[in-house]
From TrEMBL:
Organism: Candidatus Nitrosocosmicus franklandianus
UniProt record similarity statement: Belongs to the eukaryotic ribosomal protein eL43 family.
Name of this protein: 50S ribosomal protein L37Ae
Organism classification: Archaea, Nitrososphaerota, Nitrososphaeria, Nitrososphaerales, Nitrososphaeraceae
SUPFAM superfamilies: Zn-binding ribosomal proteins (SSF57829)
GO molecular function, one term: structural constituent of ribosome
Keywords from the UniProt entry: Ribonucleoprotein, Ribosomal protein, RNA-binding
InterPro entries, per database record: Ribosomal_eL37/eL43, Ribosomal_eL43, Ribosomal_zn-bd
Domain of life, per lineage: Archaea
Amino acid sequence: MGVKFGATVRKRYGKVYRTLKQKRRCPSCTSLKFRRISIGIWQCGKCEYKVAAGAYDINLGKLQL
C-alpha cells in the first residue's frame, strides 16, 4: 500500500493482516495447523475440525480497529 492511502489506513491494514496470519491452535486437537480457508470459515489441517467464526480472527471481539 502506497502513500496515497494514508498512515491510518496502512496501520489498520497491518493490524488486520498480522491478526489473520498468526499461528493458531485447533480447539479440538491443539495442533498449530488451524487456519482460515475462506471468509469466516476456519479449519484444522490435521483433524479436519471446521468452525464458522469471524472474518479475520476466531474470536470476534479480539480485533479492535
